[in-house]
Amino acid sequence: MPKKNNTNKGLKKTNSVSLSPKVIKKKKPKSKADKKYHPNQRSSKKKTSNFDPHNPFGRFNQKTTYTDENGKVHNIKTTFMINLKGLPPGSNVDVIAQSLAEKLVNSRFYSPVTKVTRLSQATSYGSPGSPVEVETSTGPKYRVIKSGALSGFSNDPSLKPLEKVEIKRELNQGVLEQLKILSAIKDIQEKYKIKEEKVKRRLFAEHDGVRSSSQASKMVKPGVNQKLGGATAYAELTKLISISMKWEWLHLIPHMLKGEASQIADNLVAGTPQANTEMMIYEGVLKDLAKTYKEGFKLLVKAALIPGTHHATEIHYLISTPDFALTPIIINAQTTNQPHIEFKDYFKFLIESLIHCKNAKADPVVIGEVKKNHPLLIFDKPNLEKQVGKNASFPTSPSKKLKF
């Protein structure tokens, strides 16, 4: 039998993709039963090799510059301050300050606060106002995020000051009645959703992130197609938002801890993608804490709802370890501010410093330098009020006092 001719012989070399059978061989299509939901599918256009664990799904704001109304380009700068009263009782403040300062040395966005220019109004129960506008060596900044004891500031004008991001807490009766009739989503009477979990390291190993069902499928009424279970469509019926705005189903206890057990209506609330991203800041430290506390620690999450809906107004996040309990973190579930990735690092720095301060001692010489270079890194509200005065820039949106 004559030998087959080499079909590639004599062909000119080109830059085209190889046509060898090994390359063009088609994979056997998966059956519907093989298909699973996976968080990475949200960015399906991106290659898996480009997946950034520091910024999962590209959710965090990573801008380095902004352009002002005159067309001039400016570097984005951020900063933060820690409320002394928000630190756990008995904390070694000098050790925490020293630890934070050491971590901030290589931060490309950070500039230390040199002066507080405005405070929020004092609360109705007599607590002094918090810093809302500050000066740094790189210019003025306003508060755009508050993570428990940590207040984060930015000069990026695309972010609204935290105090100006309103929270809608109720719907009129007519809308609620219409919602019951037209919505594909399960009815709800509760005003809150509360979930608690003891976090241990083994929980992370037990769940690989793959989802065999979607949140929408768990939120629809029995017998209703899951395609009608989207959070955005639900929000449109409530007339909470404009049609162009996107909403998501947010997990109270993260999926990475409970796997499919987290995919239940009692653990899901409607919120904005930006709120979901902010929750990732706090979920991101859970693994690190689990490595430190082998016997586990407590995570308690409570969401206040717009009555008659699954829409959250605020989500309160509380982390309690054997050594300390964090001041409850209050997340505006309706925020439209996309958190800058630097705030993710700042919060992680705070957690690492709280763990570090347990057995560490401050170096007097270093502490002297820290206080000189970061004079307002950790602040005391009563002292600030004396320095700045009670000149509130605008009223703060009061948070609900949710008891844990």
Task: List the keywords.
404 residues, alpha+beta, 6-stranded mixed β-sheet, 4-stranded antiparallel β-sheet, 14 strands, 25% helix, globular
Give the structure's gist in a few sentences.
With 404 residues, the protein is an alpha+beta fold. The protein is built from 12 helices and 14 strands.
Low-confidence stretches: 7-26, 31-49
**Looking at the structure, what is the overall shape?**
globular
Sheet with most strands: 6 strands, mixed
Widest sheet, order of strands: 4-5-6-7-3-14
Overall strand count? 14
Indicate the percent of residues in helices. Answer: 25-40%
Query: Which structural class best describes the helix and strand composition?
Result: alpha+beta
Mean pLDDT: 84
- End-to-end separation in angstroms reads 84 Å
Helical segment count: 12
Account of the protein in words:
- The protein has 404 residues and is of the alpha+beta class.
- Helices cover 25% and strands 20% of the residues.
- The chain contains twelve helices and 14 strands.
- It has helices at 21-24, 93-104, 173-182, 201-206, 215-219, 231-238, 255-258, 273-283, 286-292, 341-356, 364-373, 381-388; strands at residues 65-67, 73-75, 78-83, 113-119, 131-136, 139-147, 150-154, 192-199, 248-251, 268-271, 297-305, 312-320, 329-332, 378-379.
- The chain has a six-stranded mixed sheet.
- α2 (93-104) packs across α11 (364-373).
- The longest helix has 16 residues, at 341-356.
- It is globular and about 70 Å long.
- The model is unreliable at 7-26 and 31-49 (pLDDT under 50).
